[in-house]
Amino acid sequence: MSDHVTIVEVGPRDGLQNEPYTIPTEVKIELIERLADTGLGVVEATSFVAAPAIPQLADAEEVFGRIQRKPGVRYPVLVPNEKGYERARQVGADEIAVFTAASEAFNKKNINCTIAESLQRFAPVLERARADGVRVRGYVSTVLGCPYQGEVPVAEVVRVAEALHEAGCAEISLGDTIGVGTPAKARTMLETVAKSVPMEQLAVHFHDTYGQALANIHACLDAGVRVVDSSVAGLGGCPYARGATGNVATEDVVYMLNGLGMKTGIDLMALARVGDWIAGELDRPRSRTGQAILKRS
Q1: What is the C-alpha separation between 80 and 99, in angstroms, rounded?
Q2: Which pTM does this prediction carry?
Q3: How many structural domains is the chain composed of?
Q4: Is 1 within the bounds of a domain?
Q5: Domain that holds residue 272
Q6: pLDDT at 236 over 90
Q7: In angstroms, rounded to a whole number, what is the distance separating the alpha carbons of residues 250 and 239?
Q8: pLDDT bucket at 19, cuts 50 / 70 / 90
Q9: Which of 154, 68, 144, 141 is nearest to 106 (CA)?
């Protein structure tokens, strides 16, 4: 297996979407650009969801239109439907992400439709993306548990991942939205999905609600996954998942990967400085790795 792990930095989108006060557009742009300068190869920039749904990202056009995109860095954006796709394309987005869940209850609360309806909703988006040569990533939420229905059968995760794969998603991110997963469950879920979708097209996305995210990532790395989602300074939380704390911190993930002898191409000190800066801007705690490194320097 390759010793290179691709980190998908989701801080500017997933990390900021649930913040309680409006973050200045200038701060969002600076965050994206500073993250790209750390050696990250993928920085999820924003979301073209309707403003009433996610007010924090209502400035998506301005943010994406003004960032200075660095050669070799990908800047995917989230889109919910054809309108969102059109908005994203108008400002030059060339990679998108669509989203659904493995839990019917969560999907109805989150995007007000069934899983089947969500797949139908973005089918035309995938058709247009294919025609335009736009890469598509698919998110599957609640793969290890749902705040409304509790346990989520692995068979449902497989079914949804298969549907996204067959629809043309180049990569599928499996998300533990409420952070209830443990290493054995996470690995079993991943390996079961990988029987239907090639491992090289899978990614993992863990929230750290119970402090299990790094352990879960380690277990999934052992199983063969090589794409990991994370958020600088551990920013984030799902607005539709009560009690779900932030994503695993990118600094913590990179430190662990360095210790395993795996390669990311990321400058950890530079990343720690970005985490320290954005945590200060948002009055949020720093990541543990970030704090440790900056105190030592």
Answers
A1: 7
A2: 0.96
A3: 1
A4: no
A5: 6-296
A6: no
A7: 20
A8: confident
A9: 141
Measured distance CA(24)–CA(89) in Å, rounded: 23
Phi, psi of 6 (to 5 degrees): -90, 125
DSSP state of 200: G
Structure tokens at 125: 């988006």
Q: Which of 262, 267, 261, 206 is nearest to 231 (CA)?
A: 206
C-beta atoms surrounding 292 within 10 Å: 15
CB-based contacts of 165, cutoff 8 Å, min separation 6: 138, 172, 196, 197, 201
pLDDT digits (tens, 9 = 90+) for 190-232: 999 999 999 999 999 999 989 999 999 999 999 999 999 999 9
- With respect to residue 238, please indicate whether it lies within any of the assigned structural domains: yes
- The rounded distance, in Å, linking the Cα atoms of 129 and 135 is 7
CATH number at residue 236: 3.20.20.70
**Helices in 104-182 by DSSP H: which ranges?**
104-111, 115-132, 154-167
| Residue burial 2-16, b: 16+ Cβ < 10 Å; e: rest | eeebbbbbbbbbbbb
Considering only CA atoms, which of 178, 171, 193 is closest in space to residue 145? 178
Residue 269 CB neighbours (<10 A): 14
Q: Counting beta carbons within 10 angstroms of the beta carbon of residue 71, is it exposed (0 to 12), middle (13 to 18) or buried (19 or more)? A: exposed
Q: Would you call 146 a catalytic residue per the annotation? A: no
Whole-angstrom distance, CA of residue 177 vs CA of residue 283: 23
